[in-house]
Design a protein that fits this description.
Elements lengths: L9 H15 L11 H7 L4 H13 L3 E4 L3 E4 L13 H14 L12 H8 L3 H14 L2 E4 L3 E4 L9 H12 L2
Antiparallel strand pairs: 1-2, 3-4
Length: 173
């Protein structure tokens, strides 16, 4: 941890906590640093503060960032743990399963971007990717400035294989 004089900024306090986890071995080289959304929820901080935490960890030489993948512990040449299925696909599979189970009904809205962000601890871009994937598969349709709704059942993926693929993705974490 760094020695400082005067009040310690919030982002530095959170970076100190994560640094302690790295030094204790709880987070090892290649492990992902908590996402901005996870920090926002776990430490009750703003998204901009979470970004400053990641920058602080990079400045301290404890982590590096790969655009679109996240921030990871250690130097950039260390192999990092990757998700086998992107989180947006896992969430989309969860929503598709809820549609299949009748929990989300045709012509009714799916959870909002804000709900997805809070519930799953993801960024807005990830929440948007969920809706885009569901649209591509035919589970939902979007009405501009209104929301995203469950498609009529006849537009859902028609083959059992398509539905199994969607549900299987949700169980691979």
């Amino acid at each position: 941890m760094l020695d400082r004089e005067g009040p310690v900024p919030l982002y530095a306090q959170v970076a100190d906590i994560i640094e302690a986890r790295i030094r204790s071995g709880e987070l090892r080289d290649g492990d992902p640093v908590p996402s901005e959304a996870a920090m926002e929820t776990g430490f009750a901080i703003a998204r901009t503060t979470a970004r400053r935490v990641a920058r602080e960890l990079r400045d301290r030489g404890l982590a590096y960032t790969v655009q679109g993948e996240g921030t990871f512990v250690g130097p950039p040449d260390v192999p990092r743990q990757r998700r086998t299925v992107p989180i947006s696909r896992q969430i989309a599979a969860d929503i598709a399963e809820r549609i299949c189970n009748g929990e989300l009904r045709p012509n009714r809205s799916i959870p909002s971007e804000k709900w997805l962000m809070r519930h799953y601890g993801v960024a807005k871009v990830t929440a948007r990717a969920v809706a885009a994937h569901l649209r591509e598969q035919g589970w939902v349709f979007t009405v501009p400035y209104r929301g995203t709704y469950v498609s009529p059942e006849e537009r859902w993926p028609t083959t059992r294989n398509d539905r199994q693929t969607t549900v299987v993705e949700s169980s691979t974490s």
